[in-house]
Amino acid sequence: MSGAGGQDGASVPDEEWDRFLRESVAGVPGAPVEPSARAREVERRLRERPGQPEGWRTYSPARPRRRTGWYVAGLVAVVALLVVSLFPQQVFGWFGDDDGGQGGAPLAAESEAPREAPDAERDLPPTLDEPFRGSPAARWADGAAGITVPPARATGWMDAAQVERALRKSRDFLVAAALDPRVLRGERPTEAIALLNPHQEDVQEYLRTSLSSKKPTSKTDPLLLFSRFRPDQSRLVGDVVKTRGRLTYREGKKGAVEVTADVTFVYPVTPADGGRDSEVLRTIVRREVVMSWDDPDRIIIEPGTMSLVSYTLDMVNGGCSTPTGYLVPPFGTADEQPTDQDRRVDPYDRSKPVDSTAAGDNCATATRS
After folding, report:
1. C-alpha R_g of the chain
2. Exposed site from 8, 107, 242, 364, fewest CB < 10 Å?
């Protein structure tokens, strides 16, 4: 049998030819093998995403999110809101007296008659440094800022601009009668008197008698219109008087513009000769004054003045004995005051009308001061 020829025509030995045929069928050991397309794809994925490979055609379900923390936080929030709504004062007390017992954020101005008394405050006594501590007045405005003046509109004989001036002067009268530091020290209320119609005989007689008499009566007591303390008995703590109230108006008799003031004044006071450890009381006076800005063509009146229709007050810690013409805080004698135990009043409750005049033989029992 002849073998295959080479380039030079030499024949290949039979043993070499048989080995070549066997290796062609079985393959040469150690020879490189070309990987399949599937193998190349798996190798590429392993290089791009190291770690334990997932099995082919396997399914790994998504892990459930852990919501336990959110559930617990939500439950705590709901319980906290419930506790605050049921026990607000106690809850705020847990966090300390950060505002010094001053009652928190200031109240909005009083634009209409309140429907109920203010909430109870923490039971904290006033001090020289914090005279309104533990009182609703801590959130009231200072001085004239606490007296709300409504928008002006044409009424009676006045146009809107004239009504605005009448309202402003009405507030000026209250400031001069109940907030002027000189008047509070017992001096003559000159600026307030200048706003009163000098031709209103009954009022002028009241002024002459009340401001000159050493023994005023319930009808001639200057406290009916003016807030006054005897400087040798008591003095104000600081220079702030807290106020809350408002003016309203309507058309009155003969086309007059009738302005009604309903304002509560809170005076922190201490004994005149006291030191740093002196007792501090709050004298609270609520005044209702009705003023008539009359048409000068129909009423005899001086320009820029008004007539008084009525004036009354209610007070706490201002004296419960025979009128003296001054507010008399009961320092150290609160338990000896001849109070009416059947008549209990909250001096901060402005939802009820003023129902008394100047101090008489006894006073109502105040539920707080």
Report:
1. 46
2. 8
Whole-angstrom distance, CA of residue 110 vs CA of residue 260: 14
Q: 224: which DSSP letter?
A: G
Tell me how many degrees the CA angle 96-99-100 measures, rounded to the nearest 5.
80
Dist CA 38 CA 166 (whole Å): 98
Report the alpha-carbon distance of residue 211 to residue 190 in Å, rounded.
11
**Cβ atoms 164, 249 nearer than 8 A:** no
Tokens 């008084």 found at: 308
Contact 267, 181 (CB under 8 A): no
- 283: amino acid identity, one letter: T
- CA dihedral over 77, 79, 81, 84, signed as positive or negative: negative
**CB-based contact 368:332 (threshold 8 Å):** no
d(CA 86, CA 150): 36
What is d(CA 202, CA 358) in angstroms, rounded to the nearest whole number? 18
Separation of alpha carbons 137 and 240, rounded Å: 11
CA–CA separation, 217 vs 359, rounded Å? 10
Q: Which two tokens stand for residue 216?
A: 């005023």
DSSP H helical ranges for 221-356:
none
Please give the model's pTM, rounded to 2 decimal places: 0.72
Q: What is the pLDDT of residues 278-316, one digit of tens each?
A: 999 999 999 999 999 999 999 999 999 999 999 999 999
Side chain identity, residue 262: D
In the structure encoding, which two tokens stand for residue 243, read together? Answer: 């106020």
Query: Which two structure tokens, joined as six digits, stand for 11?
Result: 């024949």
